[in-house]
Amino acid sequence: MAVALSFLCSSCRKNTKQLGEAITNRDSVSVMTTVGVNMLISEEGVIRYKVDAEEWKVFDQMNPKFYALEKGVKLELLDSLKQVESMIEADTAYNFYEKDLWELRHNVHAENIKKEKFDTQLLFWDNSKGLIYSDSLIRIEQDKQVIIGHGFESNNNLTDYTIRHTEGVFPIQE
After folding, report:
1. Which CATH number fits domain 30-132: 2.60.450.10, 3.30.70.670, 3.30.360.10, 3.20.20.140?
2. Could you give the CA distance from residue 48 to residue 57 in angstroms, rounded to a whole number?
3. Residue 39, C-beta contacts closer than 8 angstroms, at least 6 positions apart
4. N vs C: which end of the chain shows fewer Cβ within 10 Å?
């Protein structure tokens, strides 16, 4: 009996799998991952924003704390009747929620209520200041012209904006 028990114990030890060390630094791991996000955000009891994302990760141990939406995001600014005033899409987004700041990266596309289209690779949205801006190359397609610039600043709904270092083809009437 003792021989059989020692044989069983030794065979169990041989089949034990080696495990890696546990992650001890929690700041490098998201504390929550949500898939298939459709969210409405209100300000003072009024729904103002709609967020759609494939995946939402929360990093609350980082400094600064942030949400990561690395599989694409679509943000819509809504008016009081819940009609879309402006829209921004990007392949990747980070929301530094304590600062109320969004960083949108890669294939950033935005549209305003006037159907103007904005395309860039990097865009920041500082909701606390009501400001959307970028220092990157930006292409703005209007009804009859396309404007290209390096640097951009706008209000939240992309209707009042300034483009720095502009270039493009502008029609001139003689």
Report:
1. 2.60.450.10
2. 22
3. 50, 51, 52
4. C
| More confidently predicted of 1 and 67 | 67
- Could you tell me whether strands 117-126 and 131-141 are parallel, antiparallel, or unpaired per DSSP bridges? antiparallel
Distance of alpha carbon 112 from alpha carbon 118, whole angstroms? 9
Both structure tokens of 58: 């929360």
Q: What's 23's DSSP letter?
A: P
- Peptide bond preceding 171 in cis form (omega within 30 of 0): no
The owner of tokens 């909701």 is 127
Question: What is the rounded CA–CA span in Å between residue 172 and residue 103?
Answer: 37
User: Nearest CA to 75 among 84, 57, 88?
Assistant: 88
pLDDT digits (tens, 9 = 90+) for 33-79: 989 999 998 888 889 899 999 999 999 888 899 999 999 999 999 98
**What pLDDT digit, counting tens, does each position of 82-102 carry?**
899 999 999 999 999 999 999
Q: For the whole model, what pTM was predicted? A: 0.78
> Which sign does the torsion angle of CA 105, 27, 38, 95 carry?
negative
Question: Are 151 and 165 contacting, i.e. CB atoms less than 8 angstroms apart?
Answer: yes
Q: How is the chain split into domains, by residue range? A: 30-132
Cβ–Cβ < 8 Å for 59, 65: yes
